[in-house]
Description:
The protein has 298 residues and is of the alpha/beta class. Helices cover 42% and strands 16% of the residues. The chain has helices spanning 12-16, 26-38, 61-67, 83-89, 105-112, 116-132, 155-167, 184-195, 214-223, 251-260, 269-283, 290-296; strands spanning 7-10, 43-48, 75-79, 96-102, 136-142, 146-147, 151-152, 172-177, 203-207, 228-231. The strands form two sheets. It has an eight-stranded parallel β-barrel with strand order 1-2-3-4-5-8-9-10, surrounded by eight helices. Helix 2 (26-38) packs antiparallel against helix 11 and helix 8 crosses helix 9 (214-223). It starts with 6 loop residues before the first strand and ends with a helix. The protein binds 3-hydroxy-3-methylglutaryl-coenzyme A and magnesium ion. Magnesium ion binds next to loops.
Amino acid sequence: xxxxxxxxxxxxxxxxxxxxxxxxxxxxxxxxxxxxxxxxxxxxxxxxxxxxxxxxxxxxxxxxxxxxxxxxxxxxxxxxxxxxxxxxxxxxxxxxxxxxxxxxxxxxxxxxxxxxxxxxxxxxxxxxxxxxxxxxxxxxxxxxxxxxxxxxxxxxxxxxxxxxxxxxxxxxxxxxxxxxxxxxxxxxxxxxxxxxxxxxxxxxxxxxxxxxxxxxxxxxxxxxxxxxxxxxxxxxxxxxxxxxxxxxxxxxxxxxxxxxxxxxxxxxxxxxxxxxxxxxxxxxxxxxxxxxxxxxxx
Length: 298
Ligand code: HMG
Ligand code: MG
């Protein structure tokens, strides 16, 4: 039995845009967030408080957070890699912060410039300080099935990072296929590893679509009862430290699949497609969503 309801977090403004070479003005990002909340998204990953030398596109994090007219019932999350990021994020009053680690040592070094063990040490005070202010803390485990530098990643590595995150008080665990190499059974194994330390209600999937596997991987995790997923409007995105990896699964495609299965998302697909078209027009390309393309040319 599949879950009756699914919660989708749109990570387009963050994961989607972090990788864009051309500057995207803060007002475009803000408008995108407004269109996503209008479409019924209940959580939006807005931006990252990371080093602007590492990810220049997210340098306007404070400005973007300040420009959003918040809608009641919607949660606004931001990435923070360390205490500096958390302190920079505090005035923006995020509902949720995301610490991001990895199941592969090589990716941890390239993405956040430290080992897995060091990352946990860095996250511990971040988790404590965020929770002391009543901010919910999510953890992302990157390269949960495969790493661009190290190849295949074993479920045991995912289990270890999930355990370490749990030990320092991270409340939610996001299992991420950063480079979209996973296939359904492998992704299920990674999810099951995380489920040894996190309850079904505290776990989510984050699947990039490089090999066209993100929808089947989502379906495979629905089979396990996982009911929370990240997705990116218009299929935007990629990670600057995972060359060649494409965006997340397009939110439109996930919504189309779920609604077709009678699973409730609370999202208005037509409005979501408008949001995807808005940002894709700005970037000068077509939405990387098959459902959006089909519906727009109908
Ligand atoms: P570092 O160089 O080791 O850090 O970078 P540091 O503490 O030595 O500081 C170096 C400089 O950065 C200093 O400035 C700090 O002040 C500054 P300087 O003295 O040279 O002028 N700095 C900061 N500035 C702003 N905000 C901060 C911050 N921290 C330090 N928070 C660091 C370590 C983690 C900062 C760096 O590696 C970094 O910013 N990495 C971010 C990488 C990133 O954003 N990757 C993409 C997001 S993760 C992702 O996409 C995966 C995900 O989608 C899931 C999936 O698909 O797998 C979540
Ligand atoms: Mg990602």
